[in-house]
Amino acid sequence: MSHILIVEDESKISRFVSLELQHEGYDTTVIADGREALDAALEHEYDLIILDVMLPSLNGIEILRRLRQSKDTPVIILTARDQVVDKVTGLDIGADDYMTKPFAIEELLARIRVSLKKMKMVHTIGKLTVDIDSHIATYDGDPIELTKKEFELLVYLIENRNVVISREKALDVVWGYDFVGNTNVVDVYIRYLRSKIDDAFGIKLIETVRGFGYVIRHKKTGQARPL
Ligand code: CA
Fold this sequence. Notes:
The protein has helices at residues 11-23, 34-43, 60-67, 84-92, 105-120, 148-159, 167-175, 184-201; strands at 3-7, 27-31, 48-52, 75-80, 97-101, 122-125, 128-131, 136-139, 142-144, 165-166, 206-209, 213-216.
């Protein structure tokens, strides 16, 4: 059963959302105070957090910013209708989704389902398995130590297997549109991934398509020798 933390100081809203979620079969915890919510989010393993922005003691954006320093718990931000800035900032610093108040509960439930499902996904390509939920990548059962960005880039490649990904697109998706820097960072991280996956296991999953970008694909006819 998924456990959802609802961070909301308007008790009318939190009570309503909590009841609806319980009705759908989720466990819920409601916290109205920002600082308390951050402590709880850091301490417990919630499957998802619904996060209001305007909160006592610590606002939602700040909670998210601090949470993301160590945790990837999916977060859906709730903003008031006129807080466009919060929406942009929120997605920027790692919210998975946002909803504007007032919202239809059915829509929130749908977004929650999408967020939870996304987190449960496990990708396999050849003997490489990437478990997005637990943030673990393995090759033939051997764990591969990846940094957050390496992992995200790998996930992006795997989600688009057999499709050539341009450096610009990878930069956009993995680093975000506001990333200050150039596409060389993508090349650098591809190199890291190759040394940790291709070189380490003597395979060739990540290919360079000169002038275009990169693609991950598994060739069924034997394994390519490492260069
Ligand atoms: Ca509020």
